[in-house]
Amino acid sequence: xxxxxxxxxxxxxxxxxxxENLPIHEVIxxxxxxxxxxxxxxxxxxxxxxxxxxxxxxxxxxxxxxxxVFWDIGANIGCYSLYAARNGIQVCAFExxxxxxxxLSKNIGLNKxxxxxxxxxxxxxxxxIVRWDPNSxxxxxxxxxxxxxxxxxxxxxxxxxxxxxxxxxxxxxPTHIKIDVDxxxxxxxxxxxxxxxxxRLQSLMIEANENDLDRLSQIKAVLKGKGFxxxxxxxxxxFDENYYLPYANFLFRRE
Length: 255
Hints:
- The chain is of the alpha/beta class.
- The protein is 26% helix and 24% strand.
- It has one domain: Rossmann fold, CATH 3.40.50.
- The strands form 3 sheets. A 7-stranded mixed β-sheet has the order 5-4-3-9-10-12-11, sandwiched between helices. It has a 3-stranded mixed β-sheet with strand order 6-8-7. The chain has a two-stranded antiparallel ribbon with strand order 1-2.
- The model has no long low-confidence stretch (mean pLDDT 89).
- Keywords: Methyltransferase, Transferase.
- GO terms for molecular function: methyltransferase activity.
- Residues 72-212 form the Methyltransferase FkbM domain.
């Protein structure tokens, strides 16, 4: 039987488009496979460097217990969220970038994990709706909220503080938090004062610029006041001669 086409498409040429079936790559971990959909060179880079870019983050996640709850703030396309979920950890993945959230959600669906929830909003020290200008490149890390919001920025996004989310029962209480947001780390920490004081929170890993002493001092002062030890910092030698040189992961554990 000949397919009947509605009149509104009759005579119109089908336009070029990107097939929705994105390339899928399987990463083999000791706990099993993780599937990733890739869209653009930056997302491919993240999957290709899964084991080599931040091995300290993978080792930290390996130290979690099965009854832990991991908050991944700045989850991007989900590399570390999915690794924790594959390890049997309950995961809350926060990613405000629309294109990254799309890939994050697609990756969660590919793996059919029932122990991970994704949240399409940002975290800071306030509860509000702000304007921002997200980088539209899939997998990009340059999607942070500015401390100075511009009314002309094209995207409006919901922002919460960690303490407010806990008070709302919007997510289970975290035992471990990763903050990788490239810019407003002190504001996120400032919005988590009550959470930081709770002994159920065991550790935080925060990526920060080692040369930005003011921001680091703010973060360390708050965490030390809430019972966390001086951090262990690490960045891989691979990044010593390029853009990533001043950036390191700072791991704070409770005394």
